[in-house]
Amino acid sequence: MPTMPPSLRPGDHVAIVCTARKVSHEEVAAAVDILQGWGLKVVLGESVSAEHHQFGGSDELRTRDFQRMLDAPEIRAILCARGGYGTTRIIDAIDFSRFAASPKWIAGFSDITVLNCHLLKLGHESIHGVMPFIFHQSGGEEALESLRRALFGESVAYEVAAHPLNQLGTAEGELFGGNLSLLQTITGTASDCSYAGRILFLEDIEEYLYSIDRMMVHLERTGKLRQLAGLIVGHFTNPQDNAVPFGQTPYEIIDTYARKYNFPVAYGFPVGHEPHNLALICGRRTRLTVSQAGTKVEYL
User: Which class for 228: exposed (0-12), middle (13-18), buried (19 or more C-beta within 10 A)?
Assistant: First the structure.
């Protein structure tokens, strides 16, 4: 069972770093205020305001910054400032040995999916949740509160309305997942964790419909889909199409493959690249219940 880092307490130090795309101090100022309002002390990494093309500093700088926060005993959580692209460029240079001896929460989503999966592969829980760059976005209040509850160890259960494509049933297993394109990117790497007996959640943004289909074919051909205990399908924001239409929505594409199996599937779960992006704890043993009344996700 994955290790659960200690819950945060008022007075704890938390760090904000960039493992992917760049951000400025001004772009995380609102997040700093919010975190301080939670009673936390905020430390900004050197990657915040650093710049190397689109990245938050060079690969070397981002690696050094993240490593320093991992190893610093006073830092009790690391919040990745934003996604974009770049975490896969540095993940293999990170040494998690000191972290393993004293785990701390690491949180983010999108490009941070690689970290969520890498940590699970190493046997540690992490949080898939809203990032400092968008803490203050309109409509994201519930998502932000769900992140706070996850960090501080408060109990939570989510209930979501029924969806026509849902496959009914109940499953229990460790929860994991994130961005579909990142899950495919890390296949066969040191960050690729097992799907067997777990509950997978998926989301993505601005992907071409044919590409979503191709990635689902890949999950099926690798045998990963058939190993699942359950599937949660979140936001697929702003999907793209070709001049000759693909002919299916993202959910219809996923249903084409998910319907081949008997595990429960929940569509329309609020996770992904939209303001309503509820925090999910990767590695936490979870019960997924999909019924005519709707979907319930609760930690065990």
Answer: buried
